[in-house]
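Backbone shape codes:
***
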Amino acid sequence: MCKQKDSRNHKMQVSARNALKGTVKNVVIGSVNTEVTIEVASGVEVTAIITKSSAENLKLTEGKEVYAIIKSSDVIIAID
């Protein structure tokens, strides 16, 4: 479970088990959505597409510490 404090100093809890702490490396703002790239380990990045309004509400900027919270019902593995 991911726990963090919000702007009112309350602890936020999330039920998703896959929470990766990282640093925002790039923010590409579109007319509706925003692409956010987060470095979760040296050379390891996760990219998410979120709404433009969510990115604005979170005040996402390069260098900000964030969590990539992954909630998925499927993982597909393939080989060549």
Q: What stands out?
A: The chain has one helix and six strands.
